[in-house]
Recover the amino acids of this structure.
């Protein structure tokens, strides 16, 4: 395609242009001037057309990468939701309580949420293709660990590694459309990516039910291994350079993750001491983000009513979705 745009089209145009010049020798002077101006205008327009064609060729990798990204996000979301329906089986197999088995999803989502922000910050310093290669490799490692799990702690370890790796996907899903698409087509690119996430949410429980009806629930860890097929595409088509050296607020990150972990532990163990520790860390985190120029989470975000409302709706929807297995009769 590039060859046609650069060589064939120019050859055809220049042939027509030379023919026009030959015919112009037999034209009156005034008409000759008009034809000359017309040719100049046509040449200018052709150059502009070539620029458009060139831009289309350059955007083709972006079109490919956005489809691959949508597939990657679908697999990532499926991995998060597939285990919901097998929590009762895991609970029975390892003789766990409801609060204990909930860590299969809670640990994943906690690390997934915090890791998404971390990868977003690291994208300012490191190349996206390197971050994705690292994240997807860790994601696959967690899947391999989970496939070989015969103890509950190994299942949790596999889910933790999966979360550490898969957190790179939503971070890059928000960055790639901004870096690789012009402003007028970013909405469409983001729509394609979010469609992949929605499809993953819808298909996750259905595919999990199908897999569990045929084989052991451990084979749910196999699905994310398909994501390794996307690594060569990211290595080939992501050509961006780091945007700059941003500062990472590791202390703020630790305070937020620690407060969330203590909250989950307080609920699991019914411990007021851990609940008090969660409150203390949350207060320290609030003080931290208001006292430094580049906090882990910018407090100005919460001043937007739309953002706060969207965050609340997402929190409630996710909570309802993940609580359904515990409300079913099989539990």
């Amino acid at each position: 395609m590039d060859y046609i745009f650069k060589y064939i089209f120019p050859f055809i145009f220049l042939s027509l242009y030379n023919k026009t010049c030959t015919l112009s020798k037999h034209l009156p002077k005034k008409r000759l001037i008009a034809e000359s101006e017309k040719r100049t205008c046509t040449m200018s327009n052709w150059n502009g057309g070539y620029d458009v064609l060139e831009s289309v060729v350059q955007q083709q990798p972006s079109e490919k990468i956005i489809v691959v990204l949508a597939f990657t996000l679908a697999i990532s979301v499926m991995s998060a939701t597939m285990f919901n329906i097998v929590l009762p089986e895991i609970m029975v197999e390892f003789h766990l309580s409801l609060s204990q088995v909930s860590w299969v999803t809670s640990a994943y989502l906690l690390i997934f949420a915090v890791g998404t922000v971390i990868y977003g910050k690291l994208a300012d310093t490191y190349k996206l293709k390197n971050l994705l290669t690292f994240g997807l490799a860790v994601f696959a490692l967690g899947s391999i660990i989970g496939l070989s799990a015969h103890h509950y702690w190994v299942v949790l370890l596999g889910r933790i590694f999966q979360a550490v790796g898969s957190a790179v996907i939503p971070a890059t899903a928000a960055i790639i459309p901004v870096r690789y698409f012009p402003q007028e087509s970013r909405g469409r690119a983001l729509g394609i990516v979010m469609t992949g996430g929605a499809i993953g949410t819808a298909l996750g429980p259905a595919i999990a039910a199908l897999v569990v009806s045929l084989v052991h629930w451990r084979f749910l860890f196999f699905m994310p291994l398909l994501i390794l097929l996307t690594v060569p595409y990211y290595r080939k088509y992501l050509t961006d350079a780091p945007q700059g050296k941003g500062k990472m607020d590791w202390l703020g990150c630790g305070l937020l993750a620690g407060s969330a972990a203590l909250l989950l532990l307080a609920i699991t163990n019914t411990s007021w001491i851990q609940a008090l520790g969660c409150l203390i860390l949350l207060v320290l985190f609030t003080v931290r983000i208001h006292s430094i120029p580049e906090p882990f989470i910018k407090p100005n975000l919460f001043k937007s009513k739309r953002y706060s409302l969207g965050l609340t709706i997402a929190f409630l929807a996710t909570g309802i979705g993940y609580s359904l297995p515990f409300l079913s009769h099989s539990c």
Summary: The two ends are 59 Å apart (CA to CA). Residues 247-322 form one domain. The chain has three domains: 2-13+24-52, 62-244, 247-322.
